[in-house]
Input
Amino acid sequence: MSWTITEELIPALARGAAVLGTGGGGDPYIGALLAGQALQQYGNVEVVTLDEVPDDAVVVTVAMMGAPTVMVEKLPGLDEVVTPVKELSEHYGKPVTHIALAEVGGVNSTIPIAAAAALGLPLIDGDGMGRAFPELQMILPTLYGVEASPLAYADEKGNVGVIRAISNHWVERIARVAAVEMGCSIMISGFHMSGRTAGESLVKDSLSMCLRVGREISNAREQKIDPVEKTVTVLGGRLLFEGKVTDVERATTTGFARGRASIDGAAGTMTLQFQNEHLVAQIDGDTVATTPDLIMVLDHENGEPITTEGLRYGQRVRVIAAPADERWHAPEAIEMVGPRYFGYDLEPHRFDGSVRPGQVIA
Amino acid sequence: MHIGIDVGGTNTDAVLMNGTATLAGVKHSTTPDVTSGIVQAIEELKQQHAFQGGSIDAVMIGTTHFINALVQAKRLAPTAALRLGLPATAALPPLVDWPDHLREAIESRSYLAHGGYEFDGRPISPLDPEEIRRHAADMKTHGIRSVAISSVFSPVNHDLELQAAELVAEVLGEDVAISLSHEIGRIGLLERENATVINAALRELAIEIVDGLTKAVRDQGIEAPIFLSQNDGTLMDEEYVRKYPVATFASGPTNSMRGAAATSGLSNCAVVDVGGTTADIGLLINGFPRETANEVKVAGIRTNFRMPDVLSIGMGGGSIVDIETGEVGPESVGYRLTSEALVFGGSTLTATDIAVAAGKANIGDASKVAHLDAELVDRVLQRISERISEAVDRMRTSPDPIPVVVVGGGSIMIPRDLPLFGEVQRPENFAVANAIGASIAQVGGEVDKVYSVEPGKRDETITGVREEARQKAIAAGAKPQSVSIVDFDEVPIPYLPGNATRIRAKAVGDLEMGPLT
Output
């Protein structure tokens, strides 16, 4: 059933997106403000479920690429959000009919809303990850042979480009260099696909899930139920750890916010490794969960999601984990988003701590 | 000996302290002119415990004037926000997330201009002096007297903020007050900019208040240094306040919570500070106020200060009682309590009148409230205790029992027992806990520099920075053994050689005030 995004839904959506963003995806507040401005200016956005998208629909994803720490300073604008989509319509000589989310985390949940509003196009209730990942090719459609190219990108200065590369990984490499050169925060559109392919490859109903998580947190607070527990239940995950942040070390290298956080609690010391998103959670050296499953840090009491750049000494937090879309555990997917890809010599540990390889997708 | 003064919206409290011992404590109505309330408070201290002006080592003042001015949207200067960053950031201009009434209250003008830096210090676009002059001329036309200047990535490079400030001053004259974002906040453009605009809007009031406070103290023959409390409980001198009034914002709750800890002897408790206009509820954990985890909204505006996590409800001793509904507040008679409340011969029914009618306090003329319906009085008191309980319940971190300490002059209206929490603790000197909190305020030292962190040397660098901050606190007058690091922040600046990192550390310690006499 299609539904409508109004300005009133934005705060809940943004909060849910910050949870599913697993620490990355940028400050949800900025994305929410931008989406709110776009809805005010252009009107509400129609959201259609994946089964409602016609087979011959022309679908593209819209996202921000760069370092989240940059976007809280150099705020994004609407021009650079719509430019890449227009560029792709022109490139194909055929207008784009639907906007999809590349990832359901952080600012990349709300920027496509701004794009859909400003372009007057319907938005698909689904995304390419069911979470957030740091690199462009890390999207389920890649596993279905969907090409990121041609990928259009734009900055606030009016620079526009289109990349045609031999693989999605190469698109990432080239676009990342452009992103850094253009100030580490650009808007991109790509993964041009038919409605049929979108139906197969995207994670279904993830925007609704986002809204649900955001709403459940505020409902839980009102009803005096533990919002963190509620989030764990909604996501079908588990509580990993609770404690106080005692150290955060970070460096923005090659366009990513990499770092490590230590959290001290009754159960020992948890170390979180992040690269935009939380990727590895360990307690006293024992791995308890890794990418591709979701690792999330929430405020101990009010359940507010805390992004990796928002992590600070002294915060009392709870760390939770939840299962990713099962397809992420396929061997070819693990090659793309497993811990080893990110430089951690670890087996992929699922949210429950187990090591169980998934089925090949093909 | 030293004097602690807390100037609230309704009451001015003052204490005369010798070390940690309270020699005298008085409470007085805040006067519209600030000064005479302080004069009266100090004179009454002298009556309670005679002293010479020359025997005072320091005067510490906490004031909620500035935050109240913002919350009530009163006495704010016509303010312009100028942001350097075009062509970036145009979709979300300055003041984009401000409540309409505050935008109107500061007669805000919002300007976007070229300038700003990328994350790595490359310019986004060059500053255009003509554009700045044009904006400044428009500010002049609109009667702007205070200007907040922000620039994208000014924490990395603030040159353009300084250049723009010169250009604006050329057009608007040297009298214009200019607040620069890199001096006020940290990374996070909107939050830093918001805090800077708030600061700008308060600059004129700051001069008025500081002049008034200084004169009041000097007129009493006290030549000792005057300090004001900052958000984190540390002290700043009067010159600093003139430029950065926003730094006093959370000093009220910080002082009351630290005062509650000092007077109750509890280090883990909920603190309910009831003043004239609001009741502020916070949690004390190991003797320090629990801080907010994320962004802090002040009067509905998002900022990135580190502040105590305080829930304010519009209910205090001066709150107006609705006879129909029995509800209290949020409207308050404020400092006019002593002329407008029934017990003082006025014509407005306030929460204080209810407390007197219930026999919970002996203030003013009780016969003036004898006519009040006993059922109304009960109903109002019950609503008060329900709302306080709800608020404490919202703030506590677990359903476990937690002691509740009530302080502040308005706390007389809080019943002895609260639903959910049982008997409340009311320490001796509860009425002047804020002033005691102000008097134990500490001094700090801050380091904020860009360091080149060599590989493997992070720990060493950090240790060095922390030590430097410690030494600065000691140089500012802190007792060495009492100094600890209270704030630490590390922002890497990529693509500069040598892993450049902006590191800030703040250390605080107790003010050394000579031997106890």
